[in-house]
Specification:
The protein is an alpha/beta fold. The protein is built from 21 helices and 30 strands. Bound molecules: 5'-O-[(S)-butoxy(hydroxy)phosphoryl]adenosine (WT7). 5'-O-[(S)-butoxy(hydroxy)phosphoryl]adenosine binds at residues 267, 313-314, 389-392, 414-419, 439, 502-504, 516, 519, 525, 528-530.
Length: 653
């Protein structure tokens, strides 16, 4: 058997021959997976060739998880340009094929079909505009845009000129935006006048103006007109529409090293401020492209829809970089699942004949609640595969997704991964025998390890539970925390030496399939988005009337987890509903709407140990309305506070 035989999936049937055989069969998976972990150099040397290199790499993998020397490099001596891989290399064969279908917030407005050729022009224009503002290789650009084509143009334009983008989700507050602009010392922030979403409009430009009050004077602002609504204009503002109309449609791609940063994306952790996850160019693109093709069984001509926002990593890897590297047609949706009604997702699927649909359990639960008649109104016969991401999918939602949306004929890939991992880590493939609620098996090259949480010992065998770590690197792995490599090591490699620690717990069942059991740190998962409890706490205590606060997650029917805040007021302050509202609004403005506490309980005192450590375990139990099993409370400095908290709990099931 030649190398090619060993690593290639065997049968690829064409659509004309009837139903497609899965791209990777069960036998292929087993054989290729073994090969990928036995000899990662050989496996990734081949996969590395799925993208175009300017200078081909000769070194494949050079990675170390060794304490004190965390160093991750893939394809390190290769050079490439990510935007050329996502655009230019497709021009000859598919210049007139649609690259991006843009579906606007309102179904009354027309969708845009952007061909690879037009994408090329628009990205070059944006790249030249950025160059005109003095942006060059290695400079940082913050993108704070709605889900409009210009967001993709901006990402690819940065990649084209070698600038590093950092996208800030348009739902984040001016404070959060300002912190991220300062965090990476950005030269330019790209924003829009307004962001229409679900029929409402967020004033992005005015948010940006507020954010920039706390930034250096020389940060420039490039403004895209989305609605044409009124905005104020300052000296540092530049009109994107005017500048791009005059800009050249040619911009030659910068030659970048495989390990040059492609983007920074801030994400919440269990402590302190969000950290800037850094992804680099070569390995990330190979991994995003391969997972997009293999997990979703993407074939030429398919229409792929990932409903995420480009403000999250899912949008980076599976709206823009993965699909475009594969020459796919990818949908960019500006709206929300329930506007103008609960049939919107399905209307868009039917309208654009979507073949693969990828969304989050929270959206499925919300739509399930609206009733199946919303789905049945629309023709979903082009759907071939469904995907889920962001949190474990509960069996009820899984079954509804399978039966009502997929009509029992679409495999559901439950993809477990993280901002840090760049692409899928654990996921069934379309050929896998599925288990509802399980991410099941590692992707190629991924080496999951289950560790005993306290001793850190490796737990072998099946039917076991522990914390999920990775035993080796994969090309899509983050490389560092922006400006703080020590924090990178501390966060991911210090609890369990020699391993990458995911922060999640997991179970490996009797068959060897993996089930994610949720975060084991102080990170909660609200509607598939990560929120550090420490972040919400520090926002709350920044309010003048708040003395102390502890935040935990609790089960929430639609969001997966809701935010439960215990708040102790300053002496002399009286609890009231008005103050509760005030605190909710406060957190929204400090961080953004996604961080707004769902429940706030006034706590005259918090349960603390004699050394002053808050006993979160107890607070979690009370928030879950499960105080029958509080465990040992005898070590508390003042056990009586617990009775008060139970009596006044907010979540009564
Ligand atoms: C955390 C990462 C990258 C995807 C979007 C979220 C949880 C993610 C699953 C899944 C169970 C999941 C984990 C993980 N998670 N996907 N399929 N099953 N849990 O990215 O914001 O970086 O959050 O989301 O807890 O650690 P993120």
């Amino acid at each position: 058997m030649t190398t090619e035989d060993l690593l290639d999936p065997k049968v690829v049937s064409s659509a004309a021959e009837g139903p497609l055989a899965p791209l990777v069969s069960v036998e292929d998976y087993t054989r290729m997976y073994e090969a990928s972990v036995q000899d990662p150099h050989r496996f990734w040397a081949k996969e590395g060739k799925r993208i175009d290199w300017i200078t081909p790499f000769t070194k494949v993998k050079n990675t170390s998880f060794e304490p004190g020397n965390i160093d991750i490099r893939w394809f390190e001596d290769g050079t490439l340009n990510v935007s050329a891989n996502c655009i230019d290399r497709h021009l000859e064969a598919r210049g007139d094929q649609t690259a991006i279908i843009w579906e606007p917030d309102s179904p009354e407005d027309p969708a845009l079909h952007i061909t690879y050729r037009n994408l090329h022009r628009s990205v070059c224009r944006m790249a030249n505009v950025l160059k005109g503002l003095g942006v060059g290789k290695g400079d940082r650009v913050v993108i704070y845009l709605p889900m409009i084509p210009e967001a993709a143009y901006a990402m690819l334009a940065c990649a084209r000129i070698g600038a590093i983008h950092s996208i800030v989700f348009a739902g984040f507050s001016p404070d959060a935006l300002g912190a991220r602009i300062n965090g990476c010392d950005a030269k330019v922030v790209i924003t829009a006048d307004y962001a229409p979403r679900g029929g409402r409009k967020t004033p992005l430009k005015s948010n940006t103006d507020t954010a920039l009050l706390h930034c250096k004077d020389d940060v420039q602002c490039l403004v895209v007109k989305r609605t044409g609504g009124q905005t104020t204009w300052t000296d540092r503002d530049h009109d994107y529409n005017a500048l791009s109309a005059d800009a050249s449609v040619d911009c030659s791609p910068e030659e970048m090293s495989a390990e040059d940063p492609l983007f920074i994306l801030y994400t919440s952790g269990s402590t302190g401020q969000p950290k800037g996850v850094v992804h680099t160019s070569g390995g990330y693109l190979v991994y995003a492209a391969m997972t997009h093709e293999v997990t979703f069984d993407y074939r030429d001509g398919d229409v792929f829809w990932c409903t995420a926002d480009v403000g999250w990593v899912t949008g980076h890897s599976y709206i823009v970089y993965g699909p475009l590297a594969n020459g796919a047609t990818t949908i960019m949706f500006e709206g929300v699942p329930t506007y103008p009604d609960a049939g919107r997702f399905w209307q868009v699927c039917a309208k654009h004949k979507v073949n693969q649909f990828y969304t989050a359990p929270t959206a499925i639960r919300a739509l399930m609640g609206a009733g199946k008649e919303w789905v049945e109104k629309h023709d979903l016969s082009d759907l071939r595969l469904l995907g889920s991401v962001g949190e474990p999918i509960n069996p009820e939602a899984w079954n509804w997704y399978n039966e009502v949306v997929g009509k029992g004929k679409c495999p559901i890939v439950d993809t477990f991964w993280q901002t840090e991992t760049g692409g899928h880590m654990l996921t069934p493939l379309p050929s896998t025998k599925l288990k509802p609620g399980a991410a099941q098996q590692p992707f190629f090259g991924v080496r999951p390890v289950v560790l005993e949480p306290t001793s850190g010992e490796v737990i072998e065998g099946n039917g076991v539970e522990g914390v999920l770590c990775m035993g080796d690197s994969w090309p899509g792995q983050m490389r560092t925390v922006w400006g703080d490599h020590a924090r990178f090591e501390k966060t991911y490699f210090s609890d369990y030496k020699g391993y990458y620690f995911s922060g999640d717990g997991c179970r490996r069942d009797e068959d060897g399939d993996y089930w994610i059991t949720g975060r084991v740190d102080d990170v909660i998962n609200v509607s598939g988005h990560r929120m550090g409890t420490a972040e919400v706490e520090s926002a709350l205590v920044a309010h003048a009337k708040v003395a102390e606060s502890a935040v935990v997650g609790y089960p929430h029917d639609v969001k997966g987890q809701g935010i439960y805040a215990y708040v102790t007021l300053m002496n002399g302050e009286e609890p009231s509903d008005a103050l509760r509202k005030e605190l909710e609004t406060w957190v929204r403005t400090e961080i953004g709407p996604i961080a707004k506490p769902d429940l706030i309980q006034w706590a005259p005192g918090l349960p603390k140990t004699r050394s002053g450590k808050i006993m979160r375990r107890i607070l979690r139990k009370i928030a879950e309305d499960d105080f029958g099993s509080l465990g040992d409370t005898s070590t508390l400095a003042d056990p009586s506070v617990v009775d008060d908290l139970i009596e006044n709990r907010m979540n009564r099931g």
